[in-house]
């Protein structure tokens, strides 16, 4: 690893549009070997964690660096579950969204709004030295990890017009989430333990992925000294994009559009002609099978045992088979990523398609917070990437009366002259 300052000493700077080959921090949280399809959290293989751990245990591991003892896990779990309740004003705030608001838009806004509910966490009001105190750091972590599922469930219930369900602290993290999503009038509502476990595994697989776009966002925003609610809201906003966490939603919509196995060859031709992208395929880092996609496929079978087989899986499996034997995909090392199968599982579990990125955000919040905490401990200068200026050379100011139209008028096409209302005299 060569420090970039080495080049500046020689009067050189590096152009790296999209950070294809630039490290902006040192981190000890997760490790990816993209050529061999390896993912580790704090040194542990993702396969072992998915098999033996719970999501809440993995969250502790990511944030604090080691697997918790039984006592540490109990304390951590209690702290998180105690912070699952949200202020009643937050419920009112979420109720103010339109009935058809995208749940990810609601979630991003609600996380940002948390900043106003916890003014003692504001660096604008109290200075960024408040986070020299580990108790302040931990308190915001408990709140964010604990409240994310609650906010997500409120967003879901608002969309379908059902009253919000208060958290049940007798259940575990993921069981409580499903409880808040689904309980109606039952006095005892117990989510199916096999589905709880399947979702828990999916959360483990999504919890961290080194410096992806949304995690880079948490570090970028955090480097300004802003509070973690604003930073995590910014990360969730980055996650929303279809190239990133929104890919699970896009992948399922794509599979449904393809509809049946006979339509795959025509779709593949469109992809190869660059008219479409095969969503849920390809990765900046993995040039091999994403290990998370393998585990997802296994989890899909577990979910089908309970919910029934979703026929769209046949389209996905055949699409994968055809793509993996096609020269276009082989040459570019394009394999299924985590989002190729996750959407099918979510759909089979009954989650609406636009809710998929929300599920991703619940899990990834722990990764974002691990990076936020690590950055606080390591310290960082404010992120200020350079740009390569490609604009015009210095020129004389032109007065209005001397200007010739240099702007492409089509920019304003369809707006009417000066934005006038044609129905108004
Ligand atoms: N379908 C068709 N062609 C693709 C795809 C795809 N999904 N992904 C990459 N390519 C092609 C691309 O057109 C390019 O071809 P060429 O060399 O002829 O110009 C080549 O493969 C290299 O692609 P790239 O865009 O330079 O690769 P990247 O590393 O910049 O992009 C990616 C990575 C994930 C944005 C991209 O693969 C993609 O858009 N995939 C679909 C969206 C998706 O599934 N995203 C989820 C990623 S995993 C979850 C997460 O971590 O957020």
From TrEMBL:
Pathway: Carbohydrate metabolism; tricarboxylic acid cycle; isocitrate from oxaloacetate: step 1/2. The keyword Lipid biosynthesis does not apply. SUPFAM superfamilies: Citrate synthase. The active site is at residues 283, 339. GO terms for biological process: monocarboxylic acid metabolic process; tricarboxylic acid cycle. Keywords: Transferase, Tricarboxylic acid cycle. Pfam families: Citrate_synt. One of its GO terms (cellular component) is cytoplasm. The keyword Plastid does not apply. One of its GO terms (molecular function) is acyltransferase activity, acyl groups converted into alkyl on transfer. Belongs to the citrate synthase family. This is Citrate synthase.
